[in-house]
Amino acid sequence: MRYFRFLLFFIMCQVAWGCATWYQRTMAFQEAVGKGEFGQAEKILQKDKKQAQKKNRILYCLNQGYVNFMLGRYELSNQFFDMAERLTEDQQKNIFTEAAVLVSNPEIRPYKPEDFEVIMINFYKALNYLQMNNMEDALVEVRKINIRLQQLNDKYPDHKNRYQRDAFAQLLMGLIYDAAGDWNNAFIAYRNAYDTYQSDYIRNFGLSSPEQLKKDLLRTAYLCGFQTELSQYETEFGMRYVPENASSFGQLVFFWLNGFGPVKAEWGVTFTKIQRGDGAIVFHNEELGLTFPFFWGSGYSDSDRNSLANLNVVRAVFPKYVERPPLYSQGLLTYRREDYPLQKAEDINQIAFKTLHDRMVREFANSLLRVAIKQGVKQAVSKENEWLGFAVGLANAFTEKADTRNWQTLPYSVSYTRVPLQAEENRMELQFTGMDTVVRQEVIIPAPQRGTRFFVYTTL
Q: What is d(CA 149, CA 164) in angstroms, rounded to the nearest whole number?
């Protein structure tokens, strides 16, 4: 009996560890990043063999890419992001892994990034190239984004994803064309970004076009000589374009990466069996209005049918996002007595929640089938041997969990502004405002060469 109690205690400890979310299992790394101790975060990553394993290799590369970006090692950062991108492109379903998932849980699969996480790989690569003043390769990365989004959405037969176009990617493309003096392509990219904000982003993410984008759209229309378009947008925006002062020596495009995006946790849904007379077993959740029928084909044995038919209640677990509200909600640059608000251009938090919701609607049935089969097996075994059924029940408890892995170093949001620079060293005041705090500090931008300088600032 003592041996049995010890074994039971050991199993329950393993179950408790197995129930820990990915965030909880990587807490040391997350704490180091949250404190801005990126050298320490890198050491933790290098020692964490589990993250470097095959099934978590993409997350390892994403975190290494982020840490090296924050350390200013832009080339090395892109090497890790390149690896993550290749691993993502090479991912294929394995029939044996998918079969194992039905008797275990989705976390045994190699990590498959959410669609927006795939897109953020190219975003960070573009930022790295901009920091290295490599406009051509930065533009290549931004062009990839909407192509990749189209490829991702083509996978879904219903095409009901809310995240089908990325307005900020189009905006960033415009900024890079603009910096290269290609006004025509800059105007096209800005126009596409504005259209996406006003359609997809307002409806799906509650985010409208930044005011700076409107100003850049007017300016590039003017520089291209598009008088009809200029007049149209002046009327639509309620703004009158005035040609800029020629005394400006260069331009600063200032990006603000604010806070951290959400982390995944776990939630459960209880389904009850309802009767149907066409040979199907149907599970229903009244609160969410979800109904999933299981039709028996030749692939199911009589024992599978009997086991599932005896189930009246099934509880399935799914991943959910937990928001991490940022400390600051507003940012402002002040330069030569002029204020330049940092305007939100990408709400990664909102995109994460909406894309997971879209995916989970498609995956409810698969998760429910997995749990129903596991519970059916337990009941069938219990009829033969009570203790063996108990062991199967413990195994089910140990293995039944949602996949809570995600790229947890992404920012909560991305904001930006444009500031005209002078030839001398440029001293600016940067102000961040939160619910109960205001922080001010000086930012020094070296004397620029003529043209556009890109600068990235991160608040943790």
A: 6
- Report the distance separating Cα 288 and Cα 182, nearest Å: 51
Give residue-wise pLDDT tens across range 285-311: 777 777 767 655 555 556 555 555 556
Tokens of 220: 């590039």
Tell me, what amino acid is at 324?
A: R
Rg of the chain in Å (alpha carbons): 26
Tokens of 261: 């995006």
Q: What is the pLDDT of residues 161-193, one digit of tens each?
A: 788 889 999 999 999 999 999 999 999 999 999
Q: 431 pairs with which residues across the strands?
A: 332, 440
* CA 125 from centre of chain: 15
